[in-house]
Amino acid sequence: MGKLNLYILSFSLLAFGCKQETLNSPIVSNSNAPGTVANVKVVNQNGKASITYSLPSDKDLQYVKAVYETSPGVAAQVIASRYANNLTVDGFGDTLAHTIKLYSVNSSEVSSAPVNVTVNPLTPGYILARRSLEVNITFGGFTIKAHNPTSDNLAIIPMVDTTGKGNWGQTTGMDNVYSADTVITATIRNQPSVERKYAFAVRDRWFHYSDTLFLTLTPLFEQQLDKSKFATLVLPHDATVLNNGGYTWPYYMYDGNYHPGWPSTYFTVESSITPQMVTIDLGAVHTFSRFQINPYKEVGNYYYVRGNPKDFEVWGSNSPDLTDPVSATNQPGSSWTKIDTYHVTKPSGSGYQIETTADQQAAYNGWQFDFPTGLKDYRYIRIRQLSNWQGSYFLTIAELTLWGK
């Protein structure tokens, strides 16, 4: 390439660069401060406030900015475009008076004089949740319940004094409970059945902490039921099981293999046209606390598909009657008592064969359910599949685990 062409190319690039810089700059530079907002009105809300105003008439108004502190020394800022006449300031951890400075800002980033407005937030959501916080003992731990009417993103923090000397911490399984649900519920497990001091606090996403609820709790004793004592009780009208590697009975459901491959799983025939049942003899009468179902991982690495349980019932009995008739919908007869109806919830709520990491982790860990409190002791249990994930009745379960005493 000749020198002349190089000069022309260099000049063209320089000109193009200057043009780009000009395009990215304001067309007009305005050093005059815009007018201020007017007719400011405040609606106080829980932990926040909504502010409306009239915009100044400046043609190059760019946005309105609110500058404030959520708590002493903690600065916050909210920006609303020139096409809106309102904004919300939030993140307040108290109900004290807070000064908000409202600025109009033009396209040259020149701000108006501030307009000061005072907001008095209503009780923040984390305080409301703390006021309603309930903790009750259960098998192997305790249940937590709190009302969250503002649907704030909250964390309930459980702690335990393991030494009895005020050394608060979180032991294995004692994780924070995160939720934005209007009613927050959770169960903390793996706690010994001994009297210990526990503490509970609520935190919001701005790291405001509530006062602490101190309780002395003794969780109810529970242990995993011994699967070596389990046996299959094949009753009339129980589901027909596929011949899985020589086993035509539900042994695979309690063989201790939580994540089996085919054919080492409990799998019934797919042609069933009524709710399907399977019966297990636990070997002794037990008080039940909770149970866990590990679903079978289907081809394509899916859990919330095909015959894995979605809606099902658990029934109990101590003396099953082999001649006990069942209904047309394959419902157990009078020698059985329905314990409860259960539903598997998919964390993401996504469609069929769409599973997030959270969905798959929940399934891999096992779907856990609590038995009702005050339940009668039983030796025999029966699972009745009402609907699987494809809307039919056949049943697949990788592993069933029960806790109690």
UniProtKB/TrEMBL annotation:
Domain DUF4959: from-to ranges: 17-121
UniProt keywords, alphabetically: Lipoprotein
DUF5000 domain: residues covered: 254-404
SUPFAM superfamilies, sorted: Galactose-binding domain-like (SSF49785)
Aminoacyl-tRNA synthetase found in the keyword field: no
Domain DUF5126 stretches: 122-228
Organism domain of life: Bacteria
Protein name: DUF5000 domain-containing lipoprotein
